[in-house]
Amino acid sequence: MASIEYLILILVGASFLAYLFTKLNTYLGSVFTILATMFVFASLAGYGFGMGLDTTVNYLPWFTFNQTYLGFYFVIIIAFVYLMVSFFHPYYLGQYKYKDSYNMLFLLSLAGIIGAFYTDNFLQLFFFFELIIWTTMFLIPQGKSREAAVSYFGFSVAGSVAMLIGIFLIFSSTGQLDITSGLAAISGTNAIIVFILFLIAGFAKLGAFPLHIWLPIAHGNAPHPFSPVLSGALVKLGAFIGILALVRIVPTANLLVDSINLPLGQWLVAILGSISIVFGTLMAIKEDDAKKLLAYSSMSHGGYILVAFSLMNSVAFAGGFYHILAHAIASAAAFMAIAAVARATGTTKMKELGGMIHKMPITYLAYLVAIISMAGIPPMGGFISKWLIFMAVINKGMIFVAIAIFFGSVGSFLYVFRPLAALFLGQEFREYKHVKEAPIMMLIPTFILMGLNVYTGVFPSFILNFINNILGELGYAALNVTSSSIINVFDGQGILNPALISLVFAVGVFIAFIIFILLKKSRSVSLMDTYTAANFVHDEHLLHYSVDFYAPLERLYEKHTNWMTKFYESLAKKVKEIGNLGKYLFMSKNIGTTMLWIITIIILLLWGVAL
Amino acid sequence: MSAILLVAIPLLVAFLSILVKKYAPYLLIIVGLFNLVMLFLLQDGGVIIGGFDQPLGINLLLNLYSRIALILINALIVVIACLNIKDYGKYGSILLLAMAGLNGLVLTVDLFNFFVFLEISGIAAYLITSSNKKPTNTFHYLALGAVGSSLFLFGVIILYAMYGTLNYGAMIEAIAANNNYAEVVLPFTLMFIGLGVEAKLLPFNSWVKGALGHSNTMSGPMIASVYAAALSFVLGRMIDNLFLFQGTLLTIVTVLLTVGILLGDFMAFSSTKTREILLFSSVAQASIVALLFVNGVVAWAVWLIIANALSKTVMFLVINKATKEVGCDETKSLQGLFTKNILVGLAFTLATLSVMGLPLLVGFMIKLNFLTALAGAGQIWLIVAILIASLVEGIYFVRLLVKLWYKGENEISVKYNLSFKVVFVVIALALLAFGSYTAPMNQIDNSVDAVTEVVNNG
Amino acid sequence: MIINVLVGIGIAFFAFVLQTSVAGLNRKIVGRLQKRIGPRWYQEFIDIFKLLSKRSVSHGWIFDFGVIMALGGIIGTAMFMPITSNIVAFQDYDNFFIFVYLLAVGMLGMAMSASGSGNPWASIGVMRALTTMLAYEVPFLIVVLTIINLSGTSSMTGIQIFQQTAGNNWFILALPLGGIVGFIALMGMLGKKPFETYIAPAEIASGPMVEYGGKQLGMLFILHEISVWIEVTLFVHLFLGGATNIFEFLIKYFAVYTLANLISNVNGRFKIDQVVTFFYKWPLLMAVTQAVIAIYFGWVI
Question: Which terminus of chain A faces fewer neighbouring Cβ atoms within 10 Å, N or C?
């Protein structure tokens, strides 16, 4: 029997061993990390699905654990992303300054993740959250920018501070520190405040508007193998907190518009989620760095998750849960593909890249499959989750939210296509002639993720049945799914047969292939042999259209994109100014100033007492 | 064998050591170790000197609270002395004086004695800061210290005039019997301000910037850790037993301390000098400790004092040593300090994480526990203030850490002696160990320093 | 199941034949409008078969793979589309969103292939096509939201039957504003003027198509005809009450396509940013107004 406590202890032990091994040899330590992660994932997968993990605690006296379907769903996804990413470690760690601590902190943060989703106590939840934050925070500056770590840490801690205040509010008003009973017991004004505070925490971790500033900075500058973890795994912590608030607390039953039939709080969250979607999409469209582009796409997908969980019905929840999985897989795969390219070329800037498909076709396919899922196109997982969310929004008749989710959905075609066109397709640059496909170890996770992207899009019934368990746990009706994966929502308002779609798509491609193969074979020509209106172009860079790809569209909004950043900059400036004011008032070199304060306080006191 | 030896011997040796200046640091270490041994041997209880029964005689009290404080103070002084034996050997006598003064300060339960020890330790402190070679700053400290102790004395005189006693126990009883809080507001205010000057509470602490902003490997940890801890302990004892704030005084003190927490961290946020960041963060921490005492969360305040003293010792030692060798304490010029000193960097990082209150380190458990206690008392707004301050604190510390770990334009090389490294590692491991294994910390409770009962019974 | 798939393939083939003929007829109509005789009605077939028989060039495997994926996606989409309310390959599974998103697979394949050719004009064309898509999809989907919300089904057959039920009007009458938006969006989807920006032969040398010739171009022509059929049929089913028999369908289909084509021929071309600002101004406003009126107030004719 695998025990949660043992898993955590093993990971903590393994993290120190990983430190020592990596000190000896980077490769050895990384392989050890892979094995440790694999062991943990296998234990979780082997026992966790049936809630068969041992929750008793012998060596960690302060802690208590409890298994829930909800927690397991998150933990298995995140552990999976960790496992996939760990395969990249041997090829990247060598270039990092503190590579020995990289593996250690990586495993330590996984220990934190397992604890966070299995604990049943608020304070322990906070403990694990903070553990995850600081261990991962030290991984980020090993990448491109040091300020990125500060930004990540600041927003994350702002989130956990909000959560802690919420926790103490629950504690002081109900005396409960148990997660389930605490959230159930809170009521009245306190419930509203806790709802808001928890959502601040969720938004901050999820990188949703208006707490999104850190997301592109951290994702874009983190070490290449860590960006997939950030986007695929860690932001999902925010979704978890958001779910706690949105599903477990319903602070007010006020309806804004009767026909929408949604409590005001949930409705506002849906609107904020919509802003996240639109903002993330617009920013992603104009971003030149491939990793930052994917980061903004994570923000937009975070918005979908928020919208889904604010709709208060099981179809939307199922869509939200499925989206968490689909996005984790797709985003991890996309970031890993970019990481593989960055390893080979040393850059993630799209304007410096071109034609990588000819050198790295498998990486290209992995990226292609990932973005098809991200854009919500069949036959990949992202289509199913987006379809569920669409159906729920349409059923509620939420027009303004619908504008955002449709905009985000179509907009995602635009931005995911950019790296495809600029980085993989187009002219082949001469400076990357020497580049080779990623080594076989890195292709293993690539293939697994590719397979899963397709699997989640074709046969969702296994996962949806598991999600039905979660829905039951949350007190919602199960989604209607047959064993052959036919999904029926709202009594026939929408029926989807993903396997059939894939089959028909395959038939279509087969027909097209037959047509293609029967016709005369084409003559192969070089990429430079193209129509140039009879001009002779000698340099392939000149024939590669990739800088400011959507320039005419960007021009329409690019002036209005940085006011949130400015807001946070001025906030930091204000804090600094207050600090300087404090120094001026209280820390002056003039002793008289201090005397003045002392006398003022005495007078104030005596005055107060005399009154 | 009695507790008086803890004060008398350092004082005696301090004067003797002037004759044999060369051996002063060694004498200091011997006396410090002797004190530590004594602290483990001595029984709890009061000591009366001068032949008069209480409440008239000089009265020392050794209980669990003062024992913890004394162990911390003496041990830290010994450690700091050992590390600075070469550079600041001639300050041995002064450190002995400081030891005597601080020990007395913690032990005494008599207000006038308290004032005497405050003066002794104060003089030692001024002399310690004179090692910074910034006479104006020392003078600033001296002047404010004098103001503080005068105010304290003034308060004591008023109390004496009112109740005719200077003994804690007797006075507490007298105040309780009189049951008119309004009439003690003025003396309590004056005493609080007087102690506040020394305990670095905003806005009485403008000396801190000068005294610590230019500190060295001796004066930095002495003032920021040892003195801060000792004064926090005695301030705590006063607040916990004597002051018993109420009404307007409670409001004003709470507001002052809350503002102190927030502003302390904001000021650190706006600083670019490493030492300033550390000292402003100590200001905020001192206010948190005082706030905990005001709210009766004594046990966790004690642990917070200890954890802070240990962490700040490491931090000031690391930074002051580096500043001395680099010649500048701007964060920018210290970039990449830890690239060559991994071990020192790890210890510094762990100490910082503990101050920030992040999990696996002792600071986290302390923070969580005192916040839980505050929540239990319904003080949500204080929690909000403390957490907002801790958010700002987290940001500037992370900014600092990241800068120190990654090199900037210039490569700097700082060498730390083995003795420094041993101290850093031991303290870091202690912070880590108690952060993971917290059972011993639950052994003391909020009545750890109930002076009245002990005085009356013993 | 095999029978269903075969029916589906039949529908796709029907789509190709129908639209290619209608397109040929339209060339003649437009010719007459411009005082020309115009080509024969089967001229389009001749063009396509000529292209398919010619030997062409290829710019690498993605250039070919993209074309196959694009045509495959479009054929797959067409297989799902009901011709009338009773001629449908996969009963119950003709969900509206399949047509939006499976169509996108085809578009993605084509975009990929075009970018893979290495010609900047192709990339610019793709950029314009995607931008146009971002413009017309949102107002269109809002109208469809209203339709699905009102009819309580997202099946294309179901929406037709809802309109054919006594007491319900065609949605173009029930939701007049929505109908207008739907038609404007259809113009955008078809790439008719004034939304022809992404082809713009004189401007960016036919955009995505610039590098193609021979069988690849022929396949893209087939793709184009089938996708036009899907888009026009969507409009017929969503707004014009669908069809109960094949003749009704043919009439409605011909009318809609010809109208779009005629309007196209008296218009100039928008710049790409004008396309975006245009769609996000009036059509979106109208779509939202229509949705608010219909869903929140329940005023449906």
Answer: C
